[in-house]
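Protein: Cyclic di-GMP phosphodiesterase response regulator RpfG
Species: Gimesia fumaroli
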Amino acid sequence: MTTEIKEKLDQTDEAQDENQETVSIRVEDLIVGRKINNPIYDSNGVLLLAAGSVVNSRFKQLLRDRNMPDVNIHNQDAAAVSLSAAFSGDSALDPGQGIFSTELTEKLDKLIESGSMFVANTGPAVRDSMVIHGCKGYDQEHREKLFEQQQEFGESLDGMMRGALNGDVPKGSEIAGMAASYLTQLTADADSVISAAAEAGKDETLSQHCLQMSLLGMAIGTELNLDETNVRNIGLCGLVHDWGMVRVQDKIGSWRRKLNPIDRMEVQKHPIFSLEMLEDVAGIPSVVPVVCYQVHEQPNGLGYPRNRTQNMIHMFARILNVAHCYVSLTTSREDRPALMPYAAMEYLLRQTNDKTIDSAPMRALLNLLSLFPVGSFVTLTDGSAARVIRRNQNLYTSPIVQIIQTADGKAADPMDPDNILDLNKSHHEIDQALPTPGKDEIDLSSELFDGQI
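Structure follows.
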């Protein structure tokens, strides 16, 4: 018995000695196909991977299944299995330092760490002035104007991004004007504006991505009872937060594809590039750089560029992160088609469990779009096909829909008010979600979806 205890103590001492020679590496940073020369243990000294083994996808998934966001790697192996370690001055990459630091980011980091990022309303909540349309269709004439405006805003924003990259600094008032216009339209008919923006954004350019994020972020902020100034600032941040991607695109080409570790590192630098491009823009509220810096952070600490956790991420950034995830999932990439809106919503609800996204803005998004999002297509229990046109308060599974095709496949009259149904008051229910016509969308069961946002 004494010998057995001594052996266990010796093993524990060896494990502790081993831990002193290891560094913590994010599981997501491990490079598949790289060989380790030293064993990998968990915090209890249990062997996870033997010396001489090769890191593979199965090993990474095993660590995820064990809820291990980080793993201790021997100093001698760190640089070989992780670019984050390889590109740091020391083998151990300090997660607080992120990818790289500049004088500008250091100032923002000090502000963030001071804990002075609270949000307070100074006026009435925008939600109090929202017009609720109930079981009513869209104003088609107004909708056409929305499509035209979305196209114009996209071209204007693209010009601003390109100009800022080349030293031609845009005016902050021009950007703020877009956010103010969106706010006015949201209060008049949020459902119509959000669905029109999604349709107009089918060209999937960076500028349209920013426009959709801005609009959706403002709508989420409204749902969270923020006032006009706060909602407008969210919209402004959404419009400019990804400007640094223009610089990344020029270096690596399209980012909507499966990225290798080097390209992923370039993408993760874009918040800092955005800050540099916005530094000389006059009239930008002081909150904007902080939010743009943090949009891609995650409450669980696995975001970038600084691995911040929930309480160290600005509320506006957490809101825009949810908007970014939804827009990205419902947008096609080179390596996968877009997710169906229902599938995207279902996937994001799961992401709140491990705090990949913040639950409060996610709940607001659910209230805003419903489980079957505004603009998506469904079949009803009578066999007819319909389009979701409005949310129905907090009745997530019973939105307001417009019949577009009868059960026998005939087109329904779009002008007939009887074809607009409040599913909470109808004997019909949603039977299944459908892909958007002409968009080759997939659901979560598709092998083409790898879980990457």
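Remarks: Residues 2-86 form one domain.
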